[in-house]
């Protein structure tokens, strides 16, 4: 399959990731049940009349995609592909509330129209007047990874040269209440949380939007080459290492040849054991984690992909992400391993670009 290059990366997250110097200001968020994204001044990017009608995830995605396209120097992509876990849940909740409050009568269709998961990709296309391939993947925590697989196919088949791909998820009040009730979110007394040594179940929930432009040709500002992606829905703990080794072997890598591994430790003691098992394979690699910076959410892997791009480009690993103290020599490649609650395991392999 032909090479695919990540030519730009933009992210709105719990950290100030739109700031050029964000790597120097990364701050662990370990004391709150729900972590809010740092939002930009939307009026600088979106007409005020439109802002009022947009949900948070649409606004975040509109701005993040703007930054990604601008950095890549692409005005109109050949395809727009978005991955999301819970989509435009704010508008979904508003619509359902209207149904209940109005006894299923005299309903305005606006919230219903804007509640569908593909609203994000559609709004971006409308803003760009882009009539190209437009697709949305909804695969819980592997939505971005499925989107990346689609990008590779689009470029390999010659259907696209530059693709805008992103991941996005927002929070809503009612959904966060339900996540607290079903113990997806940790109890208040379990905070602050030590993500690497947690003895309690549940997570701190985050949100965010990450967008990338992937292309057939690399540019002067390219971050990395996307080598491969692997996804599996369920995995037994004792199969973890085999799953990773098989993926690496397929791409002609041995575990000791991986320079850095980014693991999705979330503070959920029940499911973080997969990452602990994976760590045993990489005794010679820099081991990193990221959800103490972003929170856990369906498309948190967008944040880790964004971080991996900057690590490869800058050849610098932020101290706050390090599990071990091994960071010697050039960082040539990074493996990303993520899942959500022990389901939907994904592997993404990125390679740095030599001068």
From TrEMBL:
Residues 46-217 form the Beta-ketoacyl synthase-like N-terminal domain. The keyword rRNA processing does not apply. It comes from the Bacteria. Gene3D superfamilies: 3.40.47.10. InterPro entries: Beta-ketoacyl_synthase, Ketoacyl_synth_N, Thiolase-like. Pfam families: ketoacyl-synt. Keywords: Transferase. This is Beta-ketoacyl synthase N-terminal-like domain-containing protein.
